[in-house]
Amino acid sequence: xxxxxxxxxxxxxxxxxxxxxxxxxxxxxxxxxxxxxxxxxxxxxxxxxxxxxxxxxxxxxxxxxxxxxxxxxxxxxxxxx
Length: 81
Description:
Blueprint: E1 11-15, E2 22-27, H1 42-55, E3 62-67, E4 70-74
Antiparallel strand pairs: 1-4, 2-3
């Protein structure tokens, strides 16, 4: 008879405190190619999108994204809740 041992290991993921998140946006109007200047301030990237729409009628759809660096670590038994 063969026995198997299955071990469960809990992990957690969180933003690297040494990094700064980046907000990005790009216009989805066909062949536009415009992109906001990436930065940490969501409101500033939103303002850039609204300015682009104001200058380019019909350019009202944007792909927005949030990028950061994440760390994963194994949770020790004493850390589990």
